[in-house]
Amino acid sequence: MKNKKSFDSLFQNDKFTLFCSFIIALAIWLVVVVSVSSPTTRVIKGVKVTIDDAVPSQFGLHVFGEDEFTVDVTVKGKKYQISESNLSKEDISVVAQTTAVDSAGVYTLQLKPEQDSDNASYTISNISSKTIRVYFDTEKTSSFVIEPQIITDGFQIAEDGFSCGEISLSDTSVTVTGPSTQVNRIEKIVAEVKLDKALTSNKSFETKIVPFDDENKSDFEFLSMNVEDVVVTIPILRVKSLNTSVTFKNAPDSLLLNPLKYSITPNKADFNVLVDDYEKTTEYVVGSINFKELSPTSNTFTFDAQNTTIVDEKVDVFTVSVNLDGYTQEYMKIPVEKIKVNNPDNLDYKISELNKSIVIVGTEEDLKAITEEMITVVVDLSSATLEDGVRKTIPAEVSVKSATCWVYGAYTVDVRL
């Protein structure tokens, strides 16, 4: 009886009555919002567009250029159903239809928005864009030679009294990847340098490379290149009168310190010399003589003047005569057993003797000291292409262990598996 009076007294309390009324009103409001309230709309921004590549990929087509698109999607539903807490942009898919894409070109693709499930309790009423434009093409990769192009305002590259040497590039070729239609248009790729005055010294310029078509247009898009910038070096030359000389290769040790004497015709000429090296250049090397090609019966050599920077066009060749007075030659035959073979693949081979006797060059006194044990013959099979039963001629490297003598000539052996 006491509890009943206490409960009745609660309803006689104005504050309690007000609280209960608020709770009941809130419950009624929630019921109305959930089940009775009319639908509303909401705009969901930045919904990603997916480009369906199932059909284009069958034709080897790829998207080039812009391939990431977003749209704003308007959804309709009950307020609580389309609230941010219940529905996000990840719950909606917008697909670009590509069923008609079967060749290269720019296509206008229809966009199809879809709900996250068939049972979604909202509808999509609008999207901010109904279409997108996308470029499809097959992919192609080609290599091109980079061409230097020096642009002046009508003046010569080098100032009067100077000349321009062979222009060089830090990279001489470039690999281009992109849409086949555009890669096929490329006629040349140019490294362009603009000069504001004629040069009197060597100059280097860093510049971008640019593709051009056969109409000299460079309006290419969607190309990627493994090289984008190159350094263009323009050598500037100046004429200088210089003595001519040669160098020697494979010389015996004693002749490195005391080189053989020789004469050159002409022994002096005017050459174009790099400006940076002008003061320190005292002679011009017209060629190199290999001791393997030098003997008392073969001691005159000619070098093409076109391979030099000579100014005098009347000079066609440089003739070099090496003084081998006091030198003679001796012939030695080396048995096949003395031939060393580099055989890393352990091939089962048969080898012949050297194709000819070895020629040793030296003074008569020095040649008396040469023995068979001082001769080394090496045949390298590591890079040889051999076939069963087929005879293959392979070079043999012949040397002599001497500070004063050398081996003249080239030698070979026959090898067969």
Quick synopsis:
Helix content is 12%, strand content 45%. The chain contains six helices and 29 strands.
Got a strand count?
29
β-sheet strand percentage: 35-45%
Unreliably modeled segments: none
User: Rough shape?
Assistant: elongated
Distance between the termini: 121 Å
Please state how the strands of the largest beta sheet are arranged side by side: 2-7-5-4-1-3-6
Percent range of helical residues: 10-25%
**How much is the radius of gyration in Å?**
43 Å
Structural class: mainly beta
Counting H and I runs of at least 4 residues, what is the number of helices?
Answer: 6
Mean pLDDT: 90
Main β-sheet, in a few words? 7 strands, mixed
Notes on the structure:
With 417 residues, the protein is mainly beta. Helices cover 12% and strands 45% of the residues. The protein has helices at residues 2-11, 14-36, 54-58, 180-183, 253-257, 364-367; strands at residues 40-51, 62-64, 69-77, 93-96, 105-114, 122-127, 131-137, 139-151, 163-164, 168-169, 173-179, 188-194, 203-212, 224-225, 229-234, 236-249, 262-265, 268-274, 283-290, 300-304, 317-322, 327-332, 339-342, 350-351, 358-363, 375-380, 392-400, 406-408, 411-416. A 7-stranded mixed beta sheet has the order 2-7-5-4-1-3-6, with no helix packed on it. The longest helix is centred in the first third of the chain and has 23 residues, at 14-36. The radius of gyration is 43 Å and the shape is elongated. The model has no long low-confidence stretch (mean pLDDT 90).
